[in-house]
Structures are given as structure tokens and as C-alpha cells.
């Protein structure tokens, strides 16, 4: 009679003694992410920590942005978002210039104007009059908007603004992104992980204002009143797949470690120890790890 191999039998009665989880499928967007403000600070007046680039946002205004438990997601853990009242803001260094992307979560009822400097600002690096500047916010119709000053043609400079289609000022959380291509002038707006609108604005490095504000603007803007969370800067045009990953991260691939079973066979060896003669087993371990079998024995004669 064919018998079940002993190791197989042992494996069959294996017991789970430990497990762990490995993360895979990390968002490719993170490879070009240069700033990430989680907005998890708990005290009024705290700097908004940029955990990626160290470009911490200095709180300004009275009152300063306040901690809130109203967040767009809770898994992975999200400790808070920031409340803006139309007056306050965080000031960061403007680290965006040529190709770039901006993403954030917003929850607001605010409306803005028709030009990028008039929008209810999410991130704004405006300078008065024509300048190589930009603004990302909400327009007069409650749509997402982005615009900048730049070279519209080879002979003309000016400001241009594009607006999206989806309503984003319904006081519900929305993930909003813009990508800006400095070669073609193409800008793509995304709402909740999906492409919302494609347009064109002028090209040129938008570096005239060395600062950018989160939650406010610097010249004629409407007020942004509401919550902002998870602001991200990228120095590339991130892909639609990257944007979706920002909106809804791929669930981690669960890869449990193969159960490891350890048997102390000291007793068994002792009972059938005729072959051992003068050997004295003082310890023996049979370790099963997946298909591999490792036998470790300590024998003293
Ligand atoms: Ca947060
Ligand atoms: Ca301007």
C-alpha cells in the first residue's frame, strides 16, 4: 500500500504559527512626487508638514487652519484634514515650474471667478498682472479650473484658464488633479480619478512667484471656504493611471508568508533510537517552509 510520504503528512497537519503581509503594486505616481502634505496636524498654527520634500507649509491667517476629523477616507489611516475660512492659508515654496501635476482632496461649497487668479484657490502661485504664474481652484460655475500666465504663441504672452465639466463644489469630498505639459501647453483636469477636461494654456516656466499658497490666493481670488486634504506636487505630467491610483490606491496584494511549522522530534528519535547507538539526541527540528524542507539536528555522541 502506498503510504503518504511522511513530510506530506506532516505538512498536512501543519499549523499556522505566524504570518505577515507584503505590499506590492505601489503607485507609480509616487516616483515623481516631490511634495505631500497630509494635513494631519492637530494644532492650530502647526506647519503643514511635507513628508516627501520637506517643503513645510507655514500657517498664516486668523484663525489658522484647524484640525478636523472630516476626512475623505479613513483607510489607510487618515488623521485629519484642514479647515480653511477664506482668509487663512499655508505658504509653501513654489517648486513647480515646467511640467508638473497637482492633486488634492477638497470639500467645499465655494465658487470663484472666470480667470485663474479669480478662482477659489486650492493651490495658487499668482502674481498681479501678466506673469509666469498659475492657479488651481474652482471657477464661477463650481467646476475645477486651472490657468497660468505663459507664452500663448511664439509672439504673444497672456493668461489662459481652462475649466472642467464636473461640479466639485457640492460640499462633498472630491479628489482633484491637474497635469500641465510645458511643451504642448496641454492641461488635463481630473475629478475623482477620471479625466474631466483637456485644454491648452501658455507654456513657460511658471516661476515668477517663488511662493505658492494652499487654500488662498494672492491677487483678486474668491474665497475658498472648506476642507483640503492630501495635497501633492509632482514635477512630471503624471498619467491617468497614476491619477486614479492617487484617487483610489490599489489594495495591497496580500502575500502571507507560507506557514512555518516546527516539530520537535526529540521524543520520536528517542523512541526509535536503536540506530543511534551511543548518540544522544539533545534537540532536533524539522522545519517546513513551503516546498522546501530543512532538517536541523543537533546530535551528541
Ligand atoms: Ca489628512
Ligand atoms: Ca497674474
Structure write-up:
- The protein is mainly β.
- The protein has three helices and 18 strands.
- The longest helix is centred in the last third of the chain and has 8 residues, at 240-247.
- The strands form three sheets. Strands 1, 3, 4, 6, 11, 12, 13 and 15 form an eight-stranded antiparallel β-sheet that branches. Strands 2-5-14-7-8-9-10 form a seven-stranded antiparallel β-sheet, with no helix packed on it.
- One calcium ion (CA) binds at residues 38-40, 71, 78, 80-81, 229-230.
- One calcium ion binds at residues 117, 126-129, 131, 133, 149.
Primary descriptors:
disordered C terminus, mainly beta, binds calcium ion, 301 residues, 3 helices, 18 strands
What's the main sheet like? 8 strands, antiparallel
* Number of DSSP helical runs: 3
Radius of gyration computed on alpha carbons: 29 Å
Uncertain regions: pLDDT < 50 for 5+ in a row? 1-28, 265-299
What compounds are bound to the protein?
A: calcium ion
The number of distinct structural domains comes to 2
Task: State the shape.
Answer: globular
Secondary structure class reads: mainly beta
Question: What gap, in angstroms, lies between the N and C termini?
Answer: 36 Å
Q: What's the rounded overall pLDDT mean? A: 82
Task: Quickly give the CATH architecture of the largest domain.
Answer: Sandwich
As a percent range, the share of helical residues equals under 10%
Order of helices and strands: HEEEEEEEEEEEEEEEHEHEE
User: How much strand?
Assistant: 35-45%
Number of strands: 18
CATH topology of the largest domain: Jelly Rolls
CATH class of the largest domain: Mainly Beta
Amino acid at each position: 500500500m502506498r503510504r503518504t510520504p511522511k513530510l506530506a503528512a506532516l505538512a498536512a497537519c501543519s499549523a499556522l504559527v505566524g504570518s505577515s503581509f507584503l505590499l506590492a503594486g505601489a503607485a507609480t505616481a509616487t516616483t515623481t512626487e516631490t511634495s505631500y502634505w497630509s494635513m494631519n496636524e492637530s494644532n492650530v498654527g502647526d506647519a503643514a508638514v511635507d513628508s516627501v520634500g520637506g517643503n513645510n507649509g507655514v500657517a498664516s491667517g486668523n484663525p489658522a487652519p484647524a484640525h478636523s476629523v472630516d476626512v475623505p477616507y479613513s483607510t489607510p489611516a487618515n488623521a485629519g484634514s484642514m479647515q480653511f475660512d477664506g482668509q487663512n492659508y499655508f505658504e509653501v515654496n513654489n517648486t513647480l515650474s515646467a511640467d508638473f501635476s497637482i492633486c488634492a482632496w477638497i470639500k467645499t461649497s465655494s465658487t470663484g471667478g472666470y480667470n485663474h487668479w479669480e478662482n477659489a484657490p486650492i493651490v495658487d502661485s499668482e502674481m498681479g498682472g501678466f506673469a509666469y504664474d498659475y492657479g488651481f481652484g474652482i471657477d464661477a460655475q463650481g467646476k475645477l479650473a486651472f490657468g497660468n500666465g505663459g507664452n500663448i504663441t511664439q509672439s504673444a504672452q497672456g493668461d489662459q484658464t481652462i475649466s472642467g465639466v464636473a461640479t466639485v463644489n457640492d460640499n462633498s469630498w472630491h479628489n482633484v488633479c491637474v497635469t500641465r505639459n510645458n511643451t504642448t501647453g496641454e492641461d488635463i483636469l481630473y475629478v475623482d480619478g477620471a479625466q474631466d477636461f483637456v485644454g491648452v494654456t501658455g507654456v513657460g516656466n511658471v516661476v515668477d512667484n517663488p511662493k505658492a499658497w494652499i487654500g488662498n490666493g494672492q491677487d483678486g481670488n474668491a474665497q475658498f471656504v472648506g476642507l483640503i486634504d492630501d495635497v501633492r506636487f509632482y514635477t512630471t505630467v503624471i498619467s491617468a493611471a497614476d491619477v486614479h491610483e492617487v484617487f483610489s490606491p490599489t489594495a495591497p496584494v496580500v502575500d502571507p508568508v507560507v506557514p512555518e511549522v516546527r516539530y520537535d522530534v526529540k521524543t520520536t528519535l528517542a523512541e526509535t533510537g536503536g540506530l543511534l547507538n551511543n548518540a544522544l539526541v539533545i534537540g532536533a527540528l524539522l522545519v517546513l517552509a513551503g516546498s522546501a524542507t530543512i532538517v536541523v539536528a543537533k546530535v551528541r555522541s
